[in-house]
Structure formats: structure tokens, C-alpha cells
Amino acid sequence: ITHSKDDVLSLRSWLIPGASTREDLLFSLAQIPGVYVPSFYDVEYRPDGLIKDIRPNREGVPERVKKTNFDIRSDLSVVRPIVPLIRTVHDRFAVEIKRGCMTGCRFCQAGMITRPLRERPPQDIIEIVREGLRNTGYEEVSLLSLSSADYSQILALTRALHEEFAPKGISISLPSLRINAFDVELADEIGAVRKSGFTFAPEAGTERLRRVINKVVDEERLYATIETVIAKGWRTLKFYFMCGLPTETDEDLDGIVRITERAIEIGRRYYGRNFQLNVSLSPFVPKPQTPFQWHAQPTIEEFQRKYDYVESRLNKRYVSLKKHNIYESVLEGVLSRGDRRVGKAVYRAWQLGCKFDNWQEHFRYDLWLQAFAEVGIDPAFYAHRERTKDEILPWDHIDASLGKQFLWKEKEKSEQLVATEDCSTTRCQGCEVCDFREIKNILSIREDGEFVAPAKPAEGIAKDAHVANSRVRLTYAKAGALRYISHLDLVKILIQLMRRAELPLVFSRGFNPQPKIQLAPPLPLGFEAENEPVDIWLTDFVAAHEILYRLKSMPVNGLTWLNAEAISLDDPSPASDICAAEYRIELSTNSELRDIIWASVLQFQGSKEWPIEVTKKNTAVQRDLRKSVSRIELHSSEDEIVVTLQISLLNGEHVNPLTALRSIVGGRRELPQPSRVARTKLFFTRSHTSVA
């Protein structure tokens, strides 16, 4: 029960010398603050299924396991993360700027159990970002926390980051923003380089319900903030809402619709039909260690009614609605407040085949219900039942630092529509987390002093970053697992390597500036390449051999840098200049298949035309393979045949080489899966030369 990796790393030092049994090892671990060993605690149940008592079953273990805290200020974070070769959802360098949140949203478990608030010093954050970008080549930095806009020096921090990184085309992003923490100048800093989307989380549709959940936002301020963001150039907004919150009525659901309609009205006023609003609607799931841990979760039928109510009233022309799976949320409601008896159902569900449940195509709610039934558990007992104040909860022996009386008091205040202030900027609210000596809220502006950032607003990418002064053509080969990387992902990899090499790349202009690089026409998945060009435009001169040296110093499995040469800024791009390509197809074969392929190729070479139907963008089009394939050669051995084809890359003539070969062989014999397919040579129109 910890947030600290140091506690995990120190496990070995607590082991009893000579401990040889599993029991001895577990007992050693139980001595470490924050370590919970369930087998050392017995749970006694009442006849009605409620918990009667939770107590240790041996001496030497604590009655309550107390959470330990993580000193984020003494940790320099992860600066060498694993960088995937493919694009991922959060494809950016992330740095945690603070741990804990004192806003006090009553549904939020993370905000409750990560207290107190601890902020990293701005200078440390900037150094982490420098090192992280140097190691990853990402084009975006995300400042993570439960509420990043509440960081005490967020404006100065983002200005300093933009001053250093915006000229290099690196943008800064924050997770969803609290409306009350929004700042116009902060919006300018976030959107200085590129504008993708802006995310807000009102959570509830009316001010009354936002008071219930302690996320107080004045509606007029909400609309003013929306208009400010839209006026600053954001054409896509995203709103997060929850449904099924305690005391929610249809009037609160109408509030969700009202907020979206007002946002659409503002967005259309600025951008007409080019404005887009994305709305995410999620069912409420009560969580342990929160003021709402005693509340019942609505049933599936009630959630569905709420979904239908909201969806039927939204303007679908401008709103894209994403609804979280209700069945998943109800299952989460069972698991989140389940006791150890629910573990039997989890194990049985796994036996029945419940795996990868977060993937919709694998989620089987019927199998979960079967598992619950077979082990004698009623899911409604855990999900849809209201708890009383004196009920012993399954986690009462886990001390997350929050007092249970404080949580109950917050529940009562929610029913009275009374808000609780943020204690990091006002007075103590009595949550019992702090001892005000070692455990306390640590705000950077108090602890580190005021961080002075550049006075002028960030201007985004440097003006001279759009002007090319030199151009270099690199050639590379790709093989191995890299042949299964898509063309767009390959471009991503190359750009990240060039950023890591600190090359002064030229950027495009417009809404979403990108480095100016150009590659040869894309290859199908599974194809290797022996000599591929990539042109890069640079704002300053860097010798070609120096570029090659830098790139070779950052090896990627399957990628080999071959050559680099300076070329004229006026030379045509590879994509427009390449007219044909040579491909090599290697097939395992026998004498019969070898004879069939030889005969088929001879027939093809003797024909005047060879009609073929291919699919382009889901549309069938006709091609003459004799125009597409200008040369075909065969080389065979006892157990292998190598087919070399030269195929046109011009519009209206290109055909996938495997498709071409299968058409040539026709129905005489099905071709085996090639052991290797590679593009070996490219032919250029302008110079009538080839790259091989």
C-alpha cells in the first residue's frame, strides 16, 4: 500500500536472515510499513453476509496496514522510457509534476488516497523534460498529475518550457483541465505550437450536482471559459460527464444537454460546420476510501435509461458521443467494493475464458454472471446496495491515511450541497492525513520560492524554422521485425531519431506543424527494403557525414543507415521522381512448382496484354499487367526460386508484386508464402538512374 518504488526496492533488506519457508518470507514482508499480507488476517461474516470482524491471526503484524508516501521531490522520474515503434494512445513524453490532489472530488479515489499534495520544483521538471526528449525524440510533453492546472507555478513552468522547446516544434499538453483552474494565458502557452483538442471535465450537468460531488463550477464561468478557448483557435473540444451520481435527477441530465448546446452555439459562431464537440459519458462507480463508498450504484436498466435520455436530446450533427460500456462499469462496481469472497468469482470467470475484458470483442458479461452464480455470489449485494455508517467495510483494516469519520462527514456535506475547500490554499479540512511536520502539503511556490519565467508569451515554432538552407538525402535499409511496421509508424521512428540526433529540421506551416521529410512510396507490410531514400530539409548546414554518424549512433533493430549526401533544394522529391521499383521475391519450391512458374513467366513475356483486376481504396480497378511489369527474371536452385520484377510506380500502373506474380501463375498452382519479399532498387525519372 504505497506510492513509492523505494519501498519496493527495499524489500530485500527486511527479509529474516535464514528464512526458508514461504511463511517466514511473508512474515518478513509484513514488517515493512505499507505491506499487506492478506493471509495474516481473518474475516468473519454475519449470517446476512455483512462483515462481522477483520483481525490479524498471528502476533507481530499490525491491526491496520498504513499507506506510505512517496517523496516526489527527491526523485528525478523516468527519463529513459521504453519508446514503442508504433503509434500509441499516449505517444508523448510524460512527466509527473505533482503527486496528490486536494480538490476533494467526492467520487475520486485517486484524489483521496494520494494525499498530501507534493509538487516537484520547476527546475527539476525542466531538467527531466530535457533529458527525456533527448532520449526519446518525442514531439510532445505531457505535464501529468490529477489536476495539472492547479500546480502552484503552472503558468511560469509552461512559459519556461515553451521558451526552450517550442522553437524546436515540441508542444506542451495538460490532461483535462478544471474550469476553475483555467487561465487564458495558460491556454496561449498550451496552443503555441499546435492545437489538437481541448478537454474539460465538468462531470455533472448542473451546479447543484457539481456541489454534491464537490466540483463547484459556476455555469456562466464555464461558458465564458468555453468561448475563450474557442476564440483562441481550438476547433475541437471534449467534455467528460458522469451519469448515475448520487442524488442525480433528469434535470441534471438536461444540464448535460444544455452545456453541449451552448458549446455548439459558441463553436458554430466562430467556425461554422468546422467545429466539433466530443462528449464522453461514463457510469458512476463507487470506490473505496471515498465519501461515496457507502452509496449504491444504479442498476444496468437505470444506466441505460439515462444513456438513452441524454443521447436522444444531443445534437448529433456536431456532437460525437462516446458511451462507456454499462456492463463493464457495473462489473467494476462489484469488483471495486468486493470482499475476498469475490476472488473466487474472479478465478472462476478466468477459468470460463474471461480474458482481455477491456477489449469489447472479448468482454463476456454472461460468463461473469455464470461465475458469480457458480460460487454463490449475488453481484447486486456489492454493486447496488446502500451501506450504513457503522457497517464494517472490506478495506477498513487498510489505512489510506484518511479518517473514516472525515469521509462520512463529506458524504453528509454532499447531501447538504456543502462544498469543501482546497486545503492546500485555504485552511485544514480535517482529513487526518497530515501531521504538519513530515507529512504535509508541499507547494513549490512556498518551498522553492517564485520561479521566474520569460515575460513574453510563447510564439511557437521559430520563424526561421520554416526556411530551408540545406537538404540531405539519406538512404537506409529495413529488415527483420521492422518490415511489419506501417509506413506512418516508420515516418514516426525516423523523425524521432532525427530529433534525438538534434538535427535542425525545417517545419511545415499551418495548424499542426510537422518536420519536413519525404520518403519513397510506401511499402506493404511484410516487405523489406534494401536501399530507400529519405530527404530531410534543414534550417542550418550540417555535414552529410556528420548526420550519418549521429543516426548510426542510435541503433534500431532492423534499421540500417547506408549513406548520406547533400542535394539541391530544388531537386524533386523522391515520391514525385521515382518511376519504378525492383522487387525480389524468394519462394521455397520443388521441381513441379518451379516448372509451373517458369512456364507461366514465359507465357506472360510472350503476351501483348494481361488484364488484371486490383482493389484500390475498396474499389475494383482494371490494370494491364504488361504495362505495370516491365521486366521479370527467374533464378532457381534445387529448393528455391527467386523472382525479380521491375514494376511501375506511376499512377494507374502500379500493382503489388505479389499480386502480379499470383496473376502470372494464375490458377495453375497456389503459390506458397514467400520466405522473403524486398524492394531492392528504385528508378528515378529525372536522372534516369537507380538507387540500389
Describe this structure in words.
With 692 residues, this protein is of the alpha/beta class. It has 4 domains: 5-66, no CATH class; 72-341 and 377-447, pyruvate-formate lyase- activating enzyme (Alpha-Beta Horseshoe); 463-571, Pseudouridine synthase I, catalytic domain, N-terminal subdomain (Alpha-Beta Plaits); 576-691, Alpha-Beta Plaits. 31% of the residues lie in helices and 20% in strands. The chain contains 22 helices and 24 strands. Strands 14, 15, 16, 17, 18, 21, 22, 23 and 24 form a 9-stranded mixed beta sheet that branches. A hairpin with an 8-residue loop joins β15 (517-519) and β16 (528-538). α4 (122-136) packs across α17 (487-500). The chain is globular.
| CATH homologous superfamily placement of the largest domain | tm_1862 like domain
Radius of gyration: 31 Å
Mean pLDDT: 90
Which CATH-level-2 architecture of the largest domain?
A: Alpha-Beta Horseshoe
Shape: globular
* Oligomerization: single chain
Strand content: 15-25%
Short description:
The chain is an alpha/beta fold. The protein contains 22 helices and 24 strands. The chain folds into four domains: 5-66, no CATH class; 72-341 and 377-447, pyruvate-formate lyase- activating enzyme, CATH 3.80.30.20; 463-571, Alpha-Beta Plaits (2-Layer Sandwich), CATH 3.30.70.580; 576-691, Alpha-Beta Plaits.
Task: Name some characteristics of this structure.
pyruvate-formate lyase- activating enzyme, alpha/beta, 22 helices, 4 domains, 692 residues, 4-stranded parallel beta sheet, Alpha-Beta Plaits, 9-stranded mixed beta sheet
